[in-house]
Amino acid sequence: MPTDTLPRQLARTRRFTLGAPAHPAVSADGRTVLFLRSRAGDDPVGCLWALDTATGGERLVADPAALGEPGGEVPEAERIRRERARVLGTGITSFSTDAAGRLAAFALGGALWLADTADGTVRRVPTGTEVYDPRLDPAGRRIAYAGGGALRVVGTDGTDDRALAEPEAEEVAYGVADHVAAESMFRTRGHWWSPDGAGLLAARVDNRPLSRLHLADPADPQQRPRVIRYPLAGTANADVSLWLLGLDGSRTEVRWDRAAYEYLPAAGWDGHGPYAAVQSRDQRTVRTLAIGPDGTTRLLAEQRDEHWVELVPGLPARTADGAPVGSADHGDTRHLTVDGRPVTPDGLQLRAVLGTDGERVLFTATDEPTETHLWCYDPADGLRRLSDGPGLHTGVLRGGTLVLTTRLPGAPAGRTTVRRDGRPTLPVTSYAQPPVLAAHPEPLRLGPRDLRAALFLPAGHRPGDGPLPVLLDPYGGSALQKVTTGGAWWDLVSQWFADQGFAVLAVDGRGTPGRGPRWEKEIFGDKATPALEDQVEALHAAARLRPGLLDLDRVAIRGWSYGGYLAALAVLRRPDVFHAAVAGAAPTDQRLYDTHWQERFLGHPDEHPGRYDACSLIGDAPALRRPLLLVHGLADDNVFPVHALRLSGALLAAGRPHELLPLSGTTHTPADEVVAENLHHHQLEFLRRSLGLS
């Protein structure tokens, strides 16, 4: 058997997510924690498990293999949900519970299943259509689900399956999230039960106004192209509305000024009634609305910003007493607010609200950009930090039980523990595989902007060895940080490249999250220049800090998605610094990405065409002087393959040699083990050849 390598292991373990506990949910009494986990670190099939917080004992609740549904084909809506959520596994990938936390509903292969976690029974619930996103009502009497464009309900005993709302046209669906909500707003749901289980708040999504794009597989010319409705920047969005649907057949439209506030970032229904957050097209205003039983709305809160209002996951929310929970940007700090008042200090950056438990608010926040900690605010006890040590911490709190999940150096799958009422901490078993190599990033702060960076050197490197060819390995965009103490899988990739003889440098520049509103918004109007300047500044600062280590005559850069864009940008606009680039899934034409994401930073293309031209790469094609490898999945419905093909066409027209690697059947996240593994080796061979190392 061949020796395992990191690329092979990374592919087989789906980036070390397999076998790790995920999506914990705590029962109302705090005695049971439900979670998902596959049986091994290379088993992709997710199972439902339960942990007894009194004893620490774990038991298997639902196993897809035992149910005869190991999880192969899924409805198209579920496939899209998994792609938007970057779900890499199969089997049970999500579940919902009743208010008590005893019953759990989940979809498997398009069928609906119900588990009773107390008596251990699992049974299939017959439905009228394929099932997507099933949600139990709080009392545990009924399950709402989306299917065939309709929003339906069925009794937990399998009776009274019926539609509450059915689509009026082929491109209309009830109870689902629209594309930009799922991709850019953190909202993956489209229906919410009332606390008494008598009705639902549901989104209606009409995709007919959207552009019609076609995605074909050239490797299978007999297969018809997929037709995808997509909101290209500057074009129409989906028409999204909200409806109150009663089990008695009543149907009431929620009314707000949808012409002025066409985005629906969040919605829900708590003990104080239904609510929603709506956002203007220019994203400078967000309003939180209370929804009355007749569909009228009342303003609860409003946020404005001259650039854009940053959406915080988990907001808006309310405590048990009805105090609104929100955020506010003051100076260079994003604060948590309760009842309109900031309750967090300057310098502590709110990242996400994870929930409320009575009057307590559980949230994550950052005071050092490389770490994220779990915090709790209670008006009686004030502010408390619940996590310690380096890493990225998150959690769930209910019924006096805290489930803490920590990603830390050396453990890319993370570590999950349970705390309850002063009892000893209980570990939740992880079957995730340990990496075949260890990452050894050296944390750095570089240049006058104090750029957070990580330097990876080959295993066994000694002072005086060198100079080493340099590989910059950034993401650099607004979606994520690469430089943290969380021990993420991408640290291992950087270390693997370092072990092939490179000094690898990862840098988080302006626009990346975790350093406050001003830092995030320095890229407003220009997604290219600040990000590229920061990579160059960090490279030269690192060379000064480690004299003789970095060979500045052999500098390459690689990246995926925005990181791929940044890599291509680097060799096109700074060939004096960068000598080769690998650009994967790069959005090269800014007009071909979605409305909510692009217009947040660049405005509407009809109003600011120059910004789109300046940040697109097509016009830079004649400037290419360095080796460039373009990689793109031909099934990518996030960054469509047209981005790579148009840049390649422009390069060819300009007579600029380059390489193009199309990945047949591959989406934005390569999942096929052979493709994912060999992609790393292909990049390595290209970099060595381009820098004269082979």
How many strands in all? 44
CATH topology of the domain at 442-690: Rossmann fold
CA gyration radius, whole angstroms: 25 Å
Per CATH, the architecture of the domain at 442-690 is: 3-Layer(aba) Sandwich
The fourth-level CATH homologous superfamily of the domain at 442-690 is Alpha/Beta hydrolase fold, catalytic domain
Q: Approximately how much beta-strand content do the residues carry?
A: 35-45%
Q: Give the biggest sheet.
A: 8 strands, mixed
Structural class, by secondary structure, is: alpha+beta
End-to-end Cα distance: 27 Å
Integer average pLDDT: 95
> Ranges with pLDDT <50 over ≥5 residues?
none
Which sequence of strands runs across the widest sheet? 37-38-40-39-41-42-43-44
Percent helix among the residues? 10-25%
User: Total number of helical segments?
Assistant: 11
What is the global morphology? globular
Q: Can you tell me the CATH class of the domain at 442-690? A: Alpha Beta
Structure description:
This protein is α+β, with helices and mostly antiparallel strands. Among the domains are: 312-386, no CATH class; 442-690, Rossmann fold, CATH 3.40.50.1820. It is 16% helix and 36% strand. It contains eleven helices and 44 strands. The strands form ten sheets. Strands 37-38-40-39-41-42-43-44 form an eight-stranded mixed sheet, with helices on both faces. Strands 1, 2, 3, 4 and 5 form a five-stranded mixed sheet that branches. Strand 35 (411-420) and strand 36 (426-427) form a beta hairpin. It is globular. The protein starts with 5 loop residues before the first helix and ends with a helix.
